[in-house]
Design goal:
328 residues; alpha/beta; Rossmann fold; Helicase, Ruva Protein, domain 3; 2 domains; five-stranded parallel beta sheet; 14 helices; 11 strands; 46% helix; globular
């Protein structure tokens, strides 16, 4: 086992050596927000997608565009609006009168890095146009299936302040996001740097530092990162506590309408492996799980009106669960 762990560590170090320049190049363009950038990279190498919640003007679009340019991937942006149609995302078939045939016009989903900006501005019928692409990496247009280029990564954003004219994301849609990340304001010192860059004509164009083939190799290696049975037991307990809180001595069951899905268990392990990989390790430790648990669980725990009345948030529930469930 020691030899196997040593081999995994060596391979993890190779992957980390490829990913560090990617992180550094993004940080050269984006001021601060290192934890958010780490979560994007972790989701990317784990074949996941990210739901990013934050106020306007904090560089959400610039971040995903920079990520795609650092990998030399194809980038597309969809501005979700109430009048958007599913065909505006996936594409459609067009009739050619000259030869009497139909040709397929592919939509912006046929990219490698897709920004679904303000996804909650469009009705559920439009939001659901992304479901097949996010889960199966393919798109069906009028009965014809087209496979997407890999890697394929979706970053969806939503504004937590405005609720007028928005549609809550269906649970089936939310559950397909590996992480829900909360992006806050920059620090005062970071904002001064932002002023220097964007008011004095200082532009930093990202360079390509890693290839799509490298990302695919890292994605292939990630499942091989070792997770001990005790770690898997710990992850299963964390998720089970969201469904059966009283069984763990927690008095929060009356706040929870619905616990986390099995996807939470899968993404907790994959996210922990990605977190370990970014540390240059080929094995998972409990701290890896604890670090990414809030981002995996916060959008998968549905609370009831009692929780809202008592100002209890999913983060409060997660903190209590992490304090209570024994760490291996």
């Amino acid at each position: 086992m020691d030899l196997e762990i040593a081999a995994l560590n060596a391979r993890a170090k190779e992957c980390n050596d490829l990913l560090r320049p990617l992180e550094n190049e993004i940080l050269r363009v984006i001021v601060g927000q290192q934890q958010i950038i780490d979560r994007l990279i972790m989701a990317l190498i784990a074949n996941g997608h990210v739901l990013l919640e934050g106020v306007p003007g904090i560089a959400k679009t610039l971040m995903i565009r920079t990520l795609s340019e650092c990998i030399d991937g194809k980038f597309a942006r969809i501005q979700f609006t109430p009048d958007l149609l599913p065909a505006d995302i996936t594409g459609t078939k067009i009739y050619n009168q000259r030869d009497g045939t139909f040709s397929t016009v592919k939509g912006p989903v046929f990219s490698q890095f897709l920004l679904a900006d303000e996804i909650n501005r469009a009705p559920p019928k439009v939001q659901s146009a992304l479901l097949e692409a996010m889960q199966e990496y393919q798109v069906t247009i009028q009965g014809e299936t087209h496979h997407l280029d890999r890697p394929f990564f979706v970053l969806a954003t939503q504004n937590p302040i405005e609720s007028e004219g928005t549609y809550p994301l269906p649970e089936a849609q939310v559950d397909r996001f590996m992480f829900k990340v909360i992006m806050g304001y920059p620090k005062k010192s970071e904002e001064i740097t932002i002023l220097d860059r964007f008011t004095e004509g200082i532009t930093r164009k990202p360079k390509t530092v890693i290839t799509s083939a490298d990302i695919l190799r890292i994605q292939e290696f990630l499942p091989k990162v070792y997770a001990d049975p005790a770690i898997k037991e710990y992850v299963a307990s964390l998720v089970d506590a969201t469904r059966n809180a009283s069984g763990y001595g927690l008095s929060i069951q009356h706040y929870i309408l619905c616990g986390a899905s099995p996807r939470a268990t899968i993404y907790l392990i994959l996210g922990a492996k990605a977190h370990a990989l970014l540390q240059g390790r080929g094995y998972v430790i409990p701290e890896d799980v604890r670090a990414i648990a809030p981002d995996v669980l916060r959008h998968r725990i549905l609370l009831n009106y009692d929780a809202e009345a008592d100002s209890v948030t999913p983060e409060d529930i997660i903190r209590q669960i992490q304090k209570t469930v024994p760490v291996p």
